[in-house]
Amino acid sequence: MKITVLFASPNKNGSTAILTDNFKRGAEENGHTVGVLDVCNMNIHPCIGCVRCGYEGPCVQKDDNAIIRHELLSSDMVVFATPLYYYGMSAQLKTVVDRFCAYNSGLNSRHLSSALLTVAWNADDWTFEALEAHYKTLVRYVRFEDKGMVLG
Ligand SMILES: Cc1cc2nc3c(=O)[nH]c(=O)nc-3n(C[C@H](O)[C@H](O)[C@H](O)COP(=O)(O)O)c2cc1C
User: Fold this and answer.
1) pTM above 0.90, yes or no
2) pLDDT digits (tens, 9 = 90+) for 18-53
3) Probe target for ligand 1 pocket from 41, 85, 129, 132, with the most ligand atoms within 8 Å of CB
4) Upper half-sphere CA count for residue 31 (Cβ side, 13 Å)
5) How far is the CA of 15 from the centre of ligand 1 (A)?
6) What are the chain's domains?
7) Are 149 and 80 in contact (CB under 8 A)?
């Protein structure tokens, strides 16, 4: 299976990177192809809400979101890899997710598998509640099939 990881930590050698590297290694050992997109170092602007895309594109903004679109629409699985920032995903990842708007229909019909890799500082049992709820709601809306979450 072709797996695309949206790696959304600004720290290339941080905890999110450790999770991502280990996920990649494990998946490749099991015969999968894994591509990691370092979204914090890509040129991706926030959605401007014009909906000129009509939820299927093209987007009026010409930036690296076209690369993400191409990769996700040719993948079997998407993995969201993010540090917990104020109890949600990083802004860099949210920016990518909002730009799903321009290929919402295509994403919906692909029925991608998905997973969440995330890390936090706090150890309260409610630390990941909001992010888990957001991820599960997103997956439900875009008709992904959740394969699991790693909450570090
Ligand atoms: C802007 C910012 C916001 C954060 N918000 C939270 C938070 O809400 N809850 C938490 O437990 N940790 C929070 N943290 C800590 C990070 O989630 C944690 O250090 C994580 O391991 C960082 O991942 P990284 O090593 O990939 O950068 C925050 C860190 C930063 C820089």
Assistant:
1) yes
2) 999 999 999 999 999 999 999 999 999 999 999 999
3) 85
4) 1
5) 10
6) 2-151 (3.40.50.360)
7) no
